[in-house]
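We emphasize that the prediction below concerns an isolated chain of 467 residues; any contacts that depend on oligomerization or on bound cofactors are therefore not represented. The input was used exactly as deposited, without trimming of termini.
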Amino acid sequence: MKLLTQILSGVPEFPRLLAALDSGGCPAAVSGLSAVHRAHFAAGIWQQTGRPVVLLCADETEADRLAEDLTAFTGQAVRRLSARDFTFHNAAVVSRQWEHRRLSALRALAAGESPLTVCTVESLLQRTLPRTLLTQCAQMLRVGESHDLPELAERLSAAGYTRCEQVEGVGQFALRGGILDVFSPAFDRPVRAEFFGDEIDSMGLFDVSSQRRTVNLREAEILPASEVLPQFAPGGFPGLLEALDGLIARVEKSKPSHPALLATLNEQYPDNAFVQNEVSNVDATIGKEFMLKSIVALVAACVLILLYVAYRFRRIGGLKAGSTAIVALLHDMLVVFGVFVILRIPLNGNFIAALLTILGYSINDTVVIYDRIRENSALYSKKQMSLAELVNLSVNQSFARSLMTSITTCLALGVVCIISVIYRLDSIYSFAFPLLFGMVSGVYSTICIATPLWVDWKTKKKAAKQA
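Result of the prediction step, given as a token string:
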């Protein structure tokens, strides 16, 4: 593999990259490299400079592949700093293997024992414990040293370990008489330390299934088992709780309150204890800004639709077709707006999402009919069939397709509405239910508004020319 890295010396860009690194002329960009060549360059940089190399990848899959390529090029074990999963609720059983791998990699980085490290963007952005705390919580056990077993057990618990009867996974420890079993993230197997009194008499790695020692050790580093160690917060648990209480107090203080209103309610209705749980502010400034952005989005969508229809159906009078399609779309949007108003649903992001969805769905039906009109106009001459008859034929040919598509969509939306009502998903219901009415409106607006208006416009214009 050294031959492969030596080949890089013949690539003109590689020496220039090394020179930029040595002179401090960074950042230096290298483009046009495939995945394996990026690993090739990284291996060459590490071998030529002897400095630790950290490579940043977009996701875990790319990081795994890059780590394998680096191992093949260098023959060295490559550390992987992975992102950990967050659990924001009490869970009896939750996998923490990624967190344990992170702790092992972080400890190696802190000690300067990781020449090649591959990580992802997510793993770098995640908050972790300070380097000093990681070093403080790491416990080194050596044969011949003396330790107080109860105190050692307390330190392990503070470092995130869970005490159990028998060690089975990383982050657990067991204490039986003078035998301490602990599974540190630094090892792939648990460590067993046998004490004679307070002194470690022997120590080694053992197999979890057979409980037999496999490797003897003279020393073993016990890393913390968690990146979140509230015991080591300033002031310990009491200090952490005090800091959280202060944060909650500041948040509560920043909330607007209405003591006069609460006092009046409690006075008028003494049997009910009224408290303020939440305050939502809706003022003229917020409403005006939201309305302005909504109008801009809808106008932009209508203009783009008009341009698209005018260009695509230019052979049959595309601008007129686009204009009548916009009229039908405005009708559909008014229907959706009416549903929001009648049901008193807040005009929020769901309102805009429903309107934009209806725009896309309704124009699709209109485009289908216009496309059929364009095809039939090429098949039938003006002498064979009048414009009204041609449009009527085109509508009848596409009616079944539009109806079946609409029925299928409405059934799906109906199911979504039912589920949202059962499980009280108000945000989904406020989007799906008005959208259901908009879908029905989109079916008849295309047939009863867009195409009749277009025919009437074309007919009157033709009559005006003949006059």
